[in-house]
Amino acid sequence: MTYILTTQNTTHSQELGGKGAALAQLQALNLPIPEWFVVSPSAFYECLTEEQQEALATGTISDDIAALHLNHKVKEELAQALTILSPHGEKVAVRSSAVDEDGADYSFAGQLESFLFVSVEEVTDRVVKVWRSGFSDRLLAYRQQHHLGNPKPPAVLVQRMVNAEVAGVAFGADPVTGQRGVTVISAVSGVGDALVSGEVDGQTYRINRQKTVISAPEDQPLLEADTIDQITDLVYQVGAHFGRPQDIEWAVENNRVYLLQARPITGLAKLPDPDGQLNLWDNSNISESYSGVTTPLTFSFARRAYEEVYRQFCLLMGVDRTVVENNSQTFNRMIGLLQGRVYYNLLSWYKVLSLLPGFQVNRRFMEQMMGVKEPISDEILESIGIQVSQKTALSVQIMDSLHLLRTVAGLGLNFILLQSKIKGFYQRLAQGLGKKFKGLELQDLRADELVAHYRDLERQLLRSWDAPLINDFFAMIFYGILQKLAQSWCNESTGTLQNDLISGEGGMISAEPAIRVKELARLVAKDERLTQVFCEGELGAILSHLKNIPEVEQKYEAYLHKFGDRCLGELKLESPTLFDNPLPLLRSVGQLAKSGQFQDSASVSADLRQAAEVKVSQTLGHFGLKRWLFDWVLYNARERVRDRENLRFERTRLFGHVRRIFVEVGKRFVALDLLQDDRDIFYLEVNEILGFVEGTNTCTHLQGLVELRKAEFAEYQQNSDIGDRFETRGIVYQGNRFQENHASVTPSDNSDSTLQGLGCCPGIVEAQVKVITNPENAILEPGRILVAERTDPGWIMLFPAASGVLVERGSLLSHSAIVAREMGIPAIVSIPGVTRFLQDGDWVKMDGSTGRVERIQPSS
Q1: Taking the CB of residue 386, how many other CB atoms lie within 10 A of it?
Q2: Taking the model in full, what pTM does it have?
């Protein structure tokens, strides 16, 4: 058996170790590598005595390795190899070359011994010392720390020593910043061991992809331009061969650059490239619709909807169809899924907005609509090609003005036709949701018929979303104008006048569930036994009792018929609806019945509205142009905000129907043994489900995909350490940590007893708080202040019992703000860190006008 290995007599990289295997590959490229050979790990085992072999088997070799010596056979082979490598007694370097050393994940830097300027006579001793270092206590601790298993003897690399005038290391990418387009060279006089060991810093040179030196020492540089070029070319060639940036050691002797060793840059894969494409992610108001981890089916459906809807929006606003098509990549990236959570891709939203004329004005309205707390800087917008400078060419200004006039004309026409568009939308929705496919119910359809039915809905409704889009836009515009007029014309300082003016409008379907819950609670409260069952009984027991009280059962069934799809996370297709589990509704009714608090909140909101109207009359009078214009804006703000909520309820109905379609498809797949459970369908994407039926999939092993994604999304559920707003660079899913760009605003000192948010419904309340993170089966004792990170329409069942509402996220047009105003419940939204600032049972004083929250001592 041969114990000395070179490129000529081995094909086994395991025997060569990390350094040796790399050099063997690079040798074939005719790179300037000093001659070398490797003493294989097999030689180590050959030299062990029986006692040492037993010690190795029991893991106590470190106690016996000091007695290790090379036997005659290994010594003889080593001597022959040295005669060839150093025919005149030239000095050599003796280094470790362990199998798992110098990898992309673990470098073992400094853990194993290396020796320079070793004489031929000393090589035998140095080889043994390198082997011993492979079993040192230091290395054992390193392997244990990184879960690398038991140690094995390293191969030993023996290489002709380069008498370097200058030496160092070079990186094919910046190992600190992660820049893949920058080569970093570090150099010292003489050999490079002091630099590698960290004893000296050396000189640093940075070279870009055009091979231009972008930074270098100003005083007494060690490297000339030609040498820098040689090293840069060398690190490029090595990186190209291995398919990834490399960390190389080099040395210069007689003006020639030698490659001593190469290895992947440790940890580079964990760093994003800061020069890569910028993406800015923000979950702002979208977390109200898609909170927490969202399944692949929901995200793929939502992404398709956002893409199609905002294409339509731009076309409705008069953007040329060619321009829309040229920006298709922007439209299909309106939202993203990061660790299972849905985020706005803000740069895509700004790009879409920049397609419209009057960008500077529209930009502020969009930020308000989306609840974006921190606008994007002009510098970032300029960097992605969005012109924000006021200094534009006259021709550009003229064209923008013409586009603006066309858009204004289109807006005017859309405004005139809005009511008819809304009416037409309701008709299409009723037809699409009410129409039976081939006269059959969903449960009677085959899988291919279910897919055909979905395609019909997509064509008839998802691609004809004009009315909600136009109404949302005008709601945003009129509310924004109303807010400005309230401040400038009515001397409004608290910022809540416009909120009071649009409250109490009536006809808002979002408030109807709360009204119905109170009606049910009044009826249930008449029967003490029924109240107790609603509060404590199992679902079966409650439903059994209902059969004996027809009036309650009828109202309960009516609630489910109309609002059964309105559940927690109602836009997440995987969310169980009230049809699946009505217990949260029944518990809320029971708790409210038990409290006996059925006050009419509508009168509260009406009083707020009346007081606000009196203030307007006092400042603007009853007549005049200002008053007429103010009333016109107010009227339209009320109409548009009301219709906004009502149209969103119709969206809920559509999503509920889509949910049922896909659940039925899941049942068909289970019956065909394609899935194990019908709810596994939520771990497939829309195109995968449709494609499996229609024959366009590239992967047909559905259960395999499901199991893979279940495991991945289970990990996402365990990880809550992800920010609300952050940026990514380059490959989104590689290296980026999804952490806040800046420290979030949270109370830094518990002695500070106040927080500030946005007041959205006036009223001063002093009460205990109930912090609810998951409203499913949560109980809110009547009279307490509800505290939540975010809410969605599914929370409405808790609102009737709340004396006030404090929400960490949201804007003045978010669902929680609108419903609280309609119900007359004092509310504050956008309170940074409130769910961490307050704990269950804390007493607070909240002011829904000023947005101030103060922690207080309990009232006696």
Answers
A1: 18
A2: 0.82
